[in-house]
UniProtKB/TrEMBL annotation, chain A:
InterPro entries xref list: MetI-like, MetI-like_sf
Coiled-coil segments: none
Annotated compartments: Cell membrane
Assigned keywords, A-Z: Cell membrane, Membrane, Transmembrane, Transmembrane helix, Transport
GO BP terms in the entry: cellular response to sulfur starvation; transmembrane transport
Family: Belongs to the binding-protein-dependent transport system permease family.
Record's protein name: NitT/TauT family transport system permease protein
The keyword Transmembrane helix appears for this protein: yes
GO cellular component: plasma membrane
Natural source organism: Tropicimonas sediminicola
Domain (ABC transmembrane type-1) ranges: 75-255
Record membrane topology: Multi-pass membrane protein
Entry annotated with the keyword Transmembrane: yes
Membrane-spanning intervals of the chain: 82-103, 110-132, 206-225, 237-255
Automatic annotation (TrEMBL), chain B:
Family statement: Belongs to the ABC transporter superfamily.
Domain ABC transporter: 4-239
Ranges that cross the membrane: none
Name of the protein in question: NitT/TauT family transport system ATP-binding protein
One GO MF term attached to the UniProt entry: ATP binding
Family matches, as InterPro entries: AAA+_ATPase (IPR003593), ABC_transporter-like_ATP-bd (IPR003439), ABC_transporter-like_CS (IPR017871), ABC_transporter_ATP-bind (IPR050166), P-loop_NTPase (IPR027417)
Biological source species: Tropicimonas sediminicola
Domain of life from the UniProt record: Bacteria
Keywords: ATP-binding, Cell membrane, Membrane, Nucleotide-binding, Translocase, Transport
Amino acid sequence: MRLINRKPGPVLATFLALLPFALVLVAYVIASDIRLAANPADKLLPAPSTIFETAQRLFTEPDKRSGRILLWHDTAMSLQRLGLGVAIAATIGLGAGLLIGLFPHMRAGLAGFIAVVSMVPPLALLPILFIVFGLGELSKVVLIVIGITPFLIRDLSQRVIEIPREQIVKAETLGASSAVIALRVALPQVLPRLIQAVRLSLGPAWLFLIAAEAIASDLGLGYRIFLVRRYLAMDVILTYVIWITFLAFVIDWALRKLSVRLFPWMEEGL
Amino acid sequence: MSFVSVRDVFQSYGRRPILERVNVEVDEGEFISIVGASGCGKSTFLRLLLAQETPTRGTISIDGNPPAVEPNPERGVVFQRYSVFPHMTIRQNIIAGESLGQPLGRFFGKARKEARDRADTVLARIGLAHVADQYPATLSGGMQQRLAIGQALTAKPRILLLDEPFGALDPGTRLQMHDFLMELRAETNMTVFMVTHDLTEGFKLGDRVLVFDKPRWDPTDPEAFGATITYDFDARDGGIPFQRLTEETHVPIPA
């Protein structure tokens, strides 16, 4: 039997899915053991038990000076920035995508401009944002918006253009105006695409968030990581990295579930 | 004056002529089949009737109205695919036939309830009442096309345009669809234009069969000339329209 036709059973599939995680963990444990055996005070690869204790402390014990549990405050702050930035970008992306996808005049005027603007590296604009909007919340949110909006606009306008012409013509013969076609035919069909596009752009959004927080902030996940870097506190950094990964994964999973839930016609069509 | 009149229509894309000097007059209630080889302008002609394109020269008018510049509710259309809205349930698709013409594309309050009842009547008529709350993707090809036809007729168009509506269906389903279409037509007396690849289908359903072909052909430059209507068959009574005449001649009946 050819290898491309051999499929793993459910047990083997689960095992294979867990295998890479286990391998990475084992490799880390071995490397950490070797280093700690040579130097018990090594800070670079702390033992998993150390990381676990640190994580417990970070999640439960309040900061001595401020009396707050910093990790939760960092998380809340970062998620607020991320959520705000992504929500604004998604709204702009959806609106502009519909306009560009449906109206030839808009396409003629904006498509080229967006194509050029999307090539500007957003991080290169960060200093400008700090100068213009100050070091507060605004510049961080704006960085996320600037970073992912061009992608969202391009992706969504493409999805609108991909709606079969037959459907648009059909709507016209049923007497629909341009606005009705936009709201009742195009919008509902690109909403699932919007969720897909947002899921794809969450990676860059996190990148911009952490970059902005690392440079100028006094609270936030990215800020904390870069702060404790000074003390070589690998246990704290690794805890935060795992926590961020977990958050990103949960958000992605939730969006996928939301899409299936909100757009049953999509799932049945695939 | 006839109901649909196509006068001296030319259509070319760039320098390439597709249709030349197309003239045809159609009465209200006629079923017109349009046949012809691939690339002979059948679909272009249908797009012109639909007003999705405007002819380079000539005019097409329905019931004496000025030529349309974009698709409008005078015309209903069913394509081979993509004719229904995938994000609406079957019932919503039928309601959309009426509601998309509203300012917000929806009915509210009492009108909404009434539209729903009317849609249920239509669904019962076209045999889709049992799947009213499902989405089109769950339907078979034949059911989707029935839905598309029902949706188009809900908007009460003056003419119905069918672009190879049964092209993607299996032969059995196709025969069922023929019966379905003929029944609907008997009820509504709709003027229909149907493009088809299937000659048998064209003659079976149509009152007239228009054949598109190129009357002039340059072997060194096949695209030099466009197509036009080369034959206009009377297809009533299975393509033998005069059979009835002979049977109704005034032969004195013996007492």
